[in-house]
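comment on this one:
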Amino acid sequence: MKILAIETSCDETAVAVVEDGRRALADCIASQAATHAIYGGVVPEIASRRHTEVIAHLTEQAMSQAGVTKDDIEAIAVCNTPGLIGALLVGVSFAKSLAYAWGKPLVPVHHLRGHIAAAYLAFPALEPPFTALCISGGNSCIVDVRSYTEMEILGATRDDAAGESFDKVGRVLGLPYPGGAAMDAMGQTGDDGRYALPRAVIAGHPYDMSFSGLKTASLNLIHNAQQKGEALDVPSLCASFGRAVSETLVPRTLACAKALGYGKIVVAGGVAANARIRADFEAACAEQGELLFVPPLALCGDNGAMIGAQGYYEFAAGVRGDLSLNGYATSELGTPKR
């Protein structure tokens, strides 16, 4: 079964053709990173306009690359939540128009479900159940993936997402956008014990996280050094920050995985590209005897293939949207929003 998949939840326009939920025949992405770099972050209105400008051409490109026509496509999958509402509506509107014009079923896909499904493309033998950690610019949560479509969040950040915290600190440090990737690279040469940064604990909720205190402490450290004219060891601050984030994410995920007993952990989302976090998960999983599945870097960020992969399983479960399908800035992970 071939699915045309569309992802426009933030600042990447992505269109893919996916076969049977496991193979990407094409995965085309138009990045807006250079456009938003001058602002130090994503400007929602600009993101929406850029999606509108490229989505039709990108769809033609994906179908040409996959060697398919509309007659070969059996369903249209689209990310309709969560994300920037204007950006989402561009993708949803375009997907609805294609579904109507081509007479194809329309399948709404939750963005986080898509990130988890990226692992199916990278690891064809992977099947639920497993424990998943979704870490991105807007989300940080630990998920009990009981089946391809039955999922429950068992732990999540109470405030800022890990990716947002990386990007904000990176911006204040004057690093290139996106700040998280720049901090990861800079931290490779730093001393991760140079700066003592906090790790929050949520009483009574062992799997929940908080990054606002870590972000604030880091920003205060930077501002104090600037005001006093003191030199700041930027590589070491980046390394210390990365260590603090990793030591928040890894133990909670491993504890949750041990409690669930599936023996498999998936780490997905843009922050899963972070070298320190990947290395710490590899070491911890080896020690605890968990199988670890982390998609390659190309599948960590937002992409259309992950939406097509999850769209295949949503389609099989009978999930459908119609011409009243809407986009939603926020929604629960458990039930598809239509």
